[in-house]
Amino acid sequence: MKYCRRCHILYSSAAAACPKCGIAAPEKQEEAAPADKARVRRDWVMIIVGVPLLIGAVYLIISLIKALG
């Protein structure tokens, strides 16, 4: 079964186009190349370091607002 994203109906896999709106189903795209391991590792390190820093910055801003208020 294929799904038409435009008119939101399911139709037979044998049909070349959606019977309701007539738009042909998009062909499958080639798979993306695997990601570089060094880049993936660097991105994870940035997330692991960045999230606590962001939480700390929000905590600091809130404490400054309370101190001044």
How large is the radius of gyration?
A: 25 Å
Q: Label the overall shape.
A: elongated
Low-pLDDT stretches are none
By DSSP, the count of extended strands is 2
| Main sheet attributes: strand count, strand direction, barrel closure | 2 strands, antiparallel
Separation of the first and last Cα atoms: 61 Å
Into which percentage range does the β-strand content fall? Answer: 5-15%
The total count of helices amounts to 1
Q: Based on helices, strands and strand pairing, what is the structural class?
A: mainly alpha
Portion of residues within helices: 40-55%
Average pLDDT for all residues = 86
Order of helices and strands: EEH
Order of strands across the main sheet? 1-2
Task: Give me a quick take on this structure.
This protein has one helix at residues 37-68; strands at 2-3, 10-11.
Report on the structure:
This protein has 69 residues and is mainly alpha-helical. The protein is 46% helix and 6% strand. It contains 1 helix and 2 strands. It has one helix at residues 37-68; strands at residues 2-3, 10-11. Strand 1 and strand 2 form a beta hairpin. It is elongated and about 65 Å long.
Layout of strands and helices, then pairs:
Elements lengths: L1 E2 L6 E2 L25 H32 L1
Keywords:
69 residues, two-stranded antiparallel ribbon, 2 strands, mainly alpha, single chain, 1 helix
